Amino acid sequence: MPRGTGKRYDEAFKKETVTYIAENNKSVAQVAREMDVNENTLYNWIKKYGQEPEVKSVQSFSSAEAEVRALRKEMRDLKEENEILKKAMHYFAKDPR
């Protein structure tokens, strides 16, 4: 296939696509299939537009959301472990040795 015969996309579409990837935490491969755009093209757009302020703000928001989810999960796990330790403490406190 000769070079230069590919589709052309305007700047706004490229930026919106990069923002869409960041907002939805989807893989580049999945978005490439959804939008019928080559994966490498999307990676190039991410490299080019990913550092722009409007895209970065979305990325930091998504990573903050992910951090909150991870911290909540860790808190649930620690509470569960704490309950198990409390039950074990009561069990061994009753042992008459």
SSE order, one letter for each helix or strand: HHHH
Number of helices: 4
Write down the overall geometry: rod-shaped
Tally of strands: 0
Mean pLDDT figure: 82
Rg result: 24 Å
Any low-confidence stretches, pLDDT <50, length ≥5? none
How far apart, in Å, are the first and last alpha carbons?
83 Å
- The helix fraction, in percent, is over 70%
Describe the overall structure.
- This protein is mostly helical and 97 residues long.
- It has one domain (11-94).
- 77% of the residues lie in helices and 0% in strands.
- The chain is built from four helices and no strands.
- α1 runs parallel beside α4.
- The longest helix is centred in the C-terminal third of the chain and has 42 residues, at 53-94.
- The protein starts with 10 loop residues before the first helix and ends with a helix.
- The model has no long low-confidence stretch (mean pLDDT 82).
- Residues 61-88 form a coiled coil.
- Keywords: Coiled coil.
- It holds the Pfam family HTH_Tnp_1.
- This is Transposase.
